[in-house]
Amino acid sequence: MGQPVSWFQITSGDGAKLRAFYKEVFTWKSSPSPDGQMMFVDPEEGGIAGGVGASQDGSAGVTVYVTVPNLEAHLAKVQAAGGTVALPPMELPGGFGSIAGFIDPAGNFIGLHQAPAPAPKTAKKASKKKASSKKAAKKKAAPKKKAVPKKAASKKKAAKKQPAKKKAAPKKKAAKKKPAGKRKKASKKKAAKKKRR
């Protein structure tokens, strides 16, 4: 995969005049750089971000920057291909990463950009992880409850919902068992009594 052009820079000896010109001509949305010397141009749809301002040596020029994963490695490639290192790697203020630059065989200055290293995870995320691991440890340390079968659990719930039962009347003494022939007669008599009622 190729390396993308990620930034343009237009400079001159009078940065303020140049910023006013480009802002009026193209109505670019912009914000000032941390040091106030450059106007950072927001990328428009289909375009790239850039900067307009004063150059360090007062000369006018246009530069494009190509984003690379490693400045030193790409400067070595440039030299091997016939280019010359013009700007050794330097860190940008404000956490914007690092840049370097070279002169191509035709004499054009091209910039290289290396994105800043990813920021370490915040303390909040780490403290959340510690808190969640403490909760997990407490759960493991807590005594485990015995699993209650579903039927038994539902009986317990039903028992809680029902009002307390009244005490049952004392049971009558069981009658002595009659021989089999007499039992049939007794049951016929009971059935006859029920019909009469």
Work out the radius of gyration. Answer: 45 Å
Question: How would you spell out the order of helices and strands?
Answer: EHEEEEHEEEHHH
What distance separates the N and C termini?
102 Å
* Physical arrangement of strands within the biggest beta sheet: 2-3-4-1-5-8-7-6
What's the story with the biggest beta sheet?
8 strands, mixed
Question: How much of the polypeptide forms β-strand, as a percent range?
Answer: 15-25%
- Contiguous low-pLDDT stretches (5 residues minimum) are 152-156
Class from secondary-structure proportions? alpha+beta
The tally of strands reads 8
Helix content, binned percent = 25-40%
Please tally the helical runs, counting DSSP H or I stretches of 4 or more residues: 5
Put the structure in a nutshell.
This protein has an eight-stranded mixed beta sheet. It is 36% helix and 24% strand. A hairpin with a 6-residue loop joins strand 6 (84-91) and strand 7.
Task: Identify the notable features of this structure and list them briefly.
197 residues, 5 helices, 8 strands, 24% strand
Give a description of the structure.
The protein is α+β, with helices and mostly antiparallel strands. Among the domains are: 11-60, no CATH class; 68-117, 2,3-Dihydroxybiphenyl 1,2-Dioxygenase, domain 1 (Roll). It has 5 helices and 8 strands. Strands 2-3-4-1-5-8-7-6 form an 8-stranded mixed β-sheet. The longest helix has 19 residues, at 123-141. The chain is extended, with a radius of gyration of 45 Å. The N and C termini lie far apart (102 Å). Residues 152-156 have low confidence and may be disordered.
